[in-house]
């Protein structure tokens, strides 16, 4: 079967993606053939395809990325039990189901996580013209394609959750970006009504964190960014205060103390910006929690005064995929969306898949928060 796909090749100055024809075969016993209708673009797609071959994650090219897929099941391997042909599905991360962490409901820390989700597997998908083997099963799904062979472990059935076909496309990013921000608040920071929550970086992940802090009725919710348009949007979604780090003579601690003289209960960092992270740790109130969900530049090491940790009971932690189990987090986010409390329709912009370069440019200049490529 020949299908269109966005194929990433060895990065040059950044990601090196092209729209190409690839050839895919039938699903293996524990795989599903999915007709992809939409795929969200997440920063991880860009970050990982900027890393040359090899490296810490064993990246290989050519590669089909895409890990926020949505689509319809076309064919199932003989051991597949979660879905049947015709089911509508969202795609999320892969886990092995067998290791100790998978068995204790912590599949986001599966021993195979990095290998299977970031590196994926080589072949049997090939480039149509050159017959080169392609690295696929990125996050178990490689969903930047019209059709993809997906690991059963990555599939979440949503047939019964949808009210229209359009919703399938809208919900595509629930499988990674939105659940990461949501879970960082709900499962890790775990704030209450008296807490001051600060979200740094108001992209799609940050907005999901912010909406969840509002769902938790947090007293003060501070949005931090360098784009005014994003801060305005953050206000409309529940931020009680905003901080623009690009104002002249910006001072982080002064800006925070002006909003909350006693400091911040929890910080969710989606920026990975070292300087901001160090300032944010300092701004934590006693018993405050710093939650990392973004990668800092390679090799960055946090410079830290340990005294402020033990003297104030501060915690520094991080999480993968918001510590979410997609089979639980996706229905939860859909329910909040229906209640008007998780309005992701305000964050998503659609692009025909062939226009992926425009989507990347708009993500880069801050004009689009969450681009979703459509394949239909
Ligand atoms: Zn596992
Ligand atoms: Zn992602």
UniProtKB/TrEMBL annotation:
Record-annotated Enoyl reductase (ER) domain positions: 14-373
UniProt KW Ligase keyword: no
Organism (species): Aspergillus lucknowensis
Cofactor needs: Zn(2+)
PANTHER family: ENOYL REDUCTASE (ER) DOMAIN-CONTAINING PROTEIN, NAD-DEPENDENT ALCOHOL DEHYDROGENASE
Protein name per the record: Chaperonin 10-like protein
Similarity annotation: Belongs to the zinc-containing alcohol dehydrogenase family.
Keywords, sorted A to Z: Metal-binding, Oxidoreductase, Zinc
Gene3D superfamilies in UniProt: Medium-chain alcohol dehydrogenases, catalytic domain, NAD(P)-binding Rossmann-like Domain
